[in-house]
Amino acid sequence: MRRAITFVLICAVLTFGTMAAFAAQTGSIPPPLISYEQALEVALERVGGGTVTRVYHDRERFSDVLLSFYHVEIRHAMRDYDIRIDSDTGEIVRFRYFPQANPQISHGRAIAIALEKVGGGMQTEVDFHRDRNGDGALFYDIHARHGTREYWVRVDADTGEITRFLSGDVIQ
Question: By residue range, what is the domain housing residue 88?
Answer without folding.
Answer: 31-99
